[in-house]
Structure formats: C-alpha cells, structure tokens
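Request: Have a read of the protein record below and say how the chain folds.
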Amino acid sequence: MFGLEKPAGQQKPGGSGGLPKMASVGDFNVLSSSIPATKVELSVSCRNLLDRDTFSKSDPICVLYTQAIGNKEWREFGRTEVIDNTLNPDFVRKFIMDYFFEERENLRFDFYDVDSKSPNLSKHDFLGQMFCTLGEIVGSQGSRLEKPIVGIPGKKCGIVIVTAEELGCCRDSVLMQFCANKLDKKDFFGKSDPFLVFHRSNEDGSFTICHKTEVVKNTLNPVWQAFKISVRALCNGDYDRTIKVEVYDWDRDGSHDFIGEFTTSYRELSRGQSQFNVYEVINPKKKGKKKKYVNSGTVTLLSFLIETEVSFLDYIKGGTQINFTVAIDFTASNGNPSQPTSLHYMNPYQLNAYGMALRAVGEIIQDYDSDKMFPALGFGARLPPDGRVSHEFALNGNPQNPYCHGIDGVMEAYYRSLKSVQLYGPTNFAPVINHVARYAASVKDGSQYFVLLIITDGVISDMAQTKESIVNASKLPMSIIIVGVGPAEFDAMEELDGDVVRISSRGRFAERDIVQFVPFRDYIDRSGNHVLSMARLAKDVLAEIPEQFLSYMRVRGIKPSPAPPPYTPPIHVLQTQI
C-alpha cells in the first residue's frame, strides 16, 4: 500500500517516542461507507392549534423526538423557534435528519405553548403531539404528511403538516443585506415596523419559509442587518428556483400587516448590488383595486457574499489525523475483578461493560487514525512493585511508550493491567485530561485532533480540577467522550457534558463544548443483541465530534489542506533489447 510519512515532531499522547506515523491514501475509502445516503430537511407547520392563552393566542414551539432502536426510549432531537401569538405557525427552524431507507426511524412531534424563558418543557402548556415515521413523511405524496394532532382527550388539537425535502449537497452559504425605500405606511400613529420573510419554492409550486429578518422599528426606509443563510436552505442548490420575499409591518399581537411581495432567484441575487437587484414591492390586492397603483415601495440588495462551508470530511481528506487515547477507571468502587458482580469482571465468554464500550467507540474512531497506535491509560490504581497510587499509568506497563496496536492491543493491555494492579482510588479525571491536553497544545495547526475516551463507574473525586482542565482544554484541538458504566448516579457527568449549561471554572467559561457523556446502561440490550446496542452507543458518543472538531477549526481560522491527488502507480517502460 502506498504510504506517506507524517512530518517529524508530531506526536500522540503517551511516551516520547512511538512508531513512525503512516497515512495511506487507501485509508480514506472507509469514510464513504459511514456517510448517510441522504439527508432530509423537515419543515413543520400547524393549523388550528389549541388556544391556551387567555388574552392572546398561543405562542407555539415544536419539539421533535426520535426513538432509540431497541430500548424504545424517546430522545429529544431538536426544537424549532417559538412563534408568538399564532395558532397557525410555519416554523422557520428545520430539522435535518439522516435518512436511511433500511431503518425505521420513529418520530414524535410535541407542541407546547411557551409561557416563559424556561427550557424545561414541563413549565409550558402541552398542545398535543403527532407520531409518525420518517419513511411515512418521505413516502407521502409530494413528501408532505398531514396528520391530526392528538394527546388531549376530548379536544380537537388541530393538524400538523410535515414536509420532507431531500437536501442537495450544495455547501455554499451566502451573506446578504437588504434595505427598503418608501414602504407603505401601515401604522396609524407611527411609521411601519418592517421585516422581510423569505420563502423558497418547492417542486409542487408551494412555498416553504426559510428566513425572517429582524424588525426595524418605525421607519419606511429600513436597513436590515446582514444575514447568513445556506444556499441549500434558500433554494436547495437550484439557482433558478423562485425565491419569494414578503414584506410585513410587525404588530405586537401577531397579526402582522402585509405590505407587499416580490420574487427573485439565487442566480439574480448573485449578480450582487446592481440595477437588477432593486425590486418593486407589489401588493396584489392594491394593484387590483387602484388604477394608479405603482408599488408599495422598493427593496434593494446591498451586498451578496458567497462563503463555502467546509465539512469534517474535507479536513480528513486533507490529511488531518484523529488521535485516539483511552483512559480506564481502575478505582475500587468497580468491584473485585475476579467476582462476577464487578464491572471489571473478566468473563471468558463475553466482554464486560468496559470492554464493550471501548470496542464500540474505538472500532469506529480507529478508521480516522492511520497508524492505529493508541495510547491506553489507567487511573485510580496502586501499581506494582511499591503500591504507589497513579492517576495516569500506561496499561501496557511502559510509561515511555504506552501505545497499543489497534483496539485489540488496547484490550490486551487492559486485561493484563487487571491482573497486575490493585484497584484503589480516588477517581481523578484531571491528570488524564491534562496528559492529552499537553500533546494537543503542541499541535494547533489543524493537522491533528485528539479524542480522549474516559470509561468510568462515575463517582468523580476531583470535580473542581476536572472542570478547570476541561475549560483549559476547550481552547485546544481535543474532545472528551465519557462513558459511565454501572448503576451510579451520573449527575456530575451531566454537568461536565455542558449541553444544558456551558461548563465554567473560577469564572471562566469553556470556549467550546468538548465533552460528550453517555451512560452505558442506556445501551444494554436485554435481548443480548450487543452488536446493535453498541452501534447505537458509538453513534451517540461520536455524533458531536465532527461539530466540535469544526468549531475548533472555525475559531482558529484553519482551512482544510487540499486532498492529495489519487495515487496512480508509476508505469514501467519496458526496455527491449535489439
């Protein structure tokens, strides 16, 4: 196989040496299999929702849940924005989902009337729900599913319309800015409070809302802030598809007054600021009634800038290496490894929870690490020969070179350690996080990214130091995955995850969310189908890595290196003797 040496001096966590780093072009083929066949964008609208507010209409939000395979647990997938004062919302925020023809993806759409700023849904009024599958939406005529909202006995809760659109693979975004002149005055006491609503046309001629500008108060000549939108959202990558823009006068009660509309296309807009991009705002009703009607004002495009969004795979193809380090909890709370009740029990017939989690995550992530050499560390044990407690020891017993070859090598070193060290304590995470951080700090050019997998039974002893380590590490090219095994309460881990509240230490907040936590018990398949349950575990813990990776690259302004040209073997010219 054709190989390329990594430049000297780029090391992975562990010892001072290590084997030469080999990256082969052949390794990149594995990526194509993990990319979903299709991504679909779901747009949600409702009609005739229940009115739960006394003095105004409901302020609805839609929350989408997906159902885990196997344990049937519903997990929140995402939320739309809240739309004030309406029973007929057309939500702007879309849900983008992977669509696999061969998988049944159960979906649940819950609707709430939002009464406060609290993210806790129990604090808001439930308006009903709708159950369906992703295949049901995609398979409906025009990929448009209309179903009644249910869930409140004896009440008609309205209907929900979900439309699925397959996303083109266009990855450009545009930054646009608009202004308007001499818009119609709609307010009795003041001028209008205008805002724009953008819609893209669908294959069947209907329109889907894709962007709303902010409201500019009390003016007939507004200048709106520049906004960024993906070309996919604006026109699904079809440059000639109609884009309809409506102009409204904002009203506090939600009954916004229609000023007028115009149509354009991505191709027209891409001409930038010119006479072609000054649009007459037309109100069809006024035009029909008044002979002398000219327009209801004009809207002008001030700027149009195309930006190409880069993906995780662009960096991988450009040669960025993902360095994977494992840290395993060897504290006494795991139980004596010789006893079947222990989380570290070495069952000759089946992997224990540590082994299953390690293999599930490692086997996927190793595809992105060309030399397959992984530093494997342990913490919380007494080491031979003198019984000193270590929170950062090499599983293979070689502190100068803790690399193990492949996931099998890591498993072997893990089992060997169990036989030689004494489980002890306390459970300190900071040393292993700092260990990886030292290496990540030495390679900040985007050529390497570090992922630390910590597997633990979860009762953490050095919370303050761990938070400090995570806040420091959030500036570095690294992510941390924590898998909690066993029956413990994992409240502290949820805090480290930072999905709800960004983690902070001594008044400093993490620059990025870099921790992803999952409890292993959520993935135990009672039927014994470990392959399926471990696939789900890996999918969930690795799901956030590409976005965490991209957030680091974006903040640092690091662009992907160009992909190497495909390797073609040299042609040997045969010398023929005369």
Q: What stands out?
A: The chain has three domains: 38-167, 172-308, 322-556. The domain at 38-167 is CATH 2.60.40.150 (Immunoglobulin-like).
